[in-house]
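Supplementary Methods, section 5.1.

A reviewer requested that the exact input to the structure prediction be made available. We therefore reproduce it here, unchanged from the version used in the analyses.
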Amino acid sequence: MDKRFLLALVLTAVVVIATPWLFGTQSSRAVNKAQRDTALAADTAAGRGLDSQPRPVEKPTVSAATDSSLPSVQARPETTSVSLSLVDYTFSNSGAVPISVDLKSYKALDGSKRNVTLRSKSGQLISYRLFLPGDTVNLGQVQFQVDSLRPNSLTYRANTHGADIAIRYTFVPDSYLVRVSGEVRHPNANNGFIALEMPTSLRSAEADSLDDQQHLAYAVKPQREDARGIPFSKLDPGERRLESGPITWIAAKNKYFIVGALTPNGGTPFAEVAITGGPRTGRRATQASAIAVEPIKNGTFSFELYTGPQEWRRLLALGRGFENSNPYGGFLQGVVQPFATIVMRILLWMRATLNLSYGWVLVIFGVTVRLLLWPLNQKAMRTSMKMSRLQPELAEIQKRYKSDPQRMQSEIMRVYKDHGMSPFSSLSGCLPMLLPMPILFALFFVFQNTIEFRGVPFLWLADISLKDPYFIVPIVMGLSMFVLSIIGMRNSPPNPQAKMMAYVLPVMMTVFFLNLASGLNLYYAVQNLTAIPQQWLIANERAKSGGTLSAARA
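The structure derived from this sequence is encoded token-by-token as follows.
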């Protein structure tokens, strides 16, 4: 019993300490020389939403306006607005770039009652630089002209430094995706590069803006490797990291929203991505910079721009592993990411099938997991009881043959064999605690960025993605854990370590979970409450077997 509780203590410490810790090549390669297909492919999601009900395709409306208040190098930049069913884009002719994206389906939770708007502190959501042999052109300082304004596309054109440049945005209806293509007419264009500068930050629209800032990060997906995240907090001011290509996509994100640049399927990948830590005015890192470089092939370049929510189904539909733009698990990503994906799929399926809020989905999910594990837990607990009954006999053998280790080992193995057990059977006593841990561990990461939980109320909870303001759920979780431990000790031999664990472990877990998402606390509390009846039955069974064993000895 002592060894099992010691193992449980070590495993618990690993979960408590390692989980938050997890959160928390100076050369470029030659890229594929195959000719890029300049024709825009039809988006598989065009005209179709990702919701369960089909939605009619709406033609975007466009309008032009002049706004001198927008930050730009020009005194009076011209802006062009493009309105679609899900989003409103605002473009500036200074650099031919989007400066804001208004998401119609998402309301800000900061009390402003406005829509969530993706903006960068630099004033431009993205920007371009053109690298030609012996010359670098900052296109953000170039005044473009609207060359073509159509219901589904917007084209800018400018002539600078001897180069004729055209940038075209093709909008996908009922989507957050824009296809971007460009042409550069210059004698040395095929030896040049286009550099895409990602947002230096994203303004928060959340009730807990500090928590939102902690999730500011870039994510990069090399073609032959898993996606990896680079939090702003992990970058020292001025620190530079170079991600060598080929790169499939790069994204800037906060907790729930993302701006991603993806290379088209079969298109030219980014040659490299340079990421630099930004200045800090306080302890928190709220700024950084990232530049993705794409070679110009046959005078053209292209990429796809996603500016919207981190909805798992939408990101999955884009392909190219973009659903993994939130890399989970740190160095354990290869294990945690697939498991978190499975849990996310199950929760989304339950939500669509049962048509209940995510609060009730978590309750049902917690009960279901515990019931499915009931047979395994039952077997493990009974094995633990058998091991408890064997302890006195094993202790007597160890005392009798302490001077003859070989004889002692053979006698111990005989006792195990007579009772149909093995020395490894003692480890099965820890299974009741270990079996639910992978799901809890996966949910810990899932709750970090899953927008499906954002703003979802449940009972007195205004948002299950935030901590319980009254700390009711974590306290219930801790109390249920304490009750579970006390019942587990009923009719067991006195054990000082077990008694200490019964008091210390619930307090440790309550303190650790106090400021975590209330939905995560809800799931764990439901798990504990559902396990109490099984623990009670095992305790009664232990009492009966203890009485039978005492009578036999007498």
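The longest strand covers residues 240-253. These observations are discussed further in the main text.
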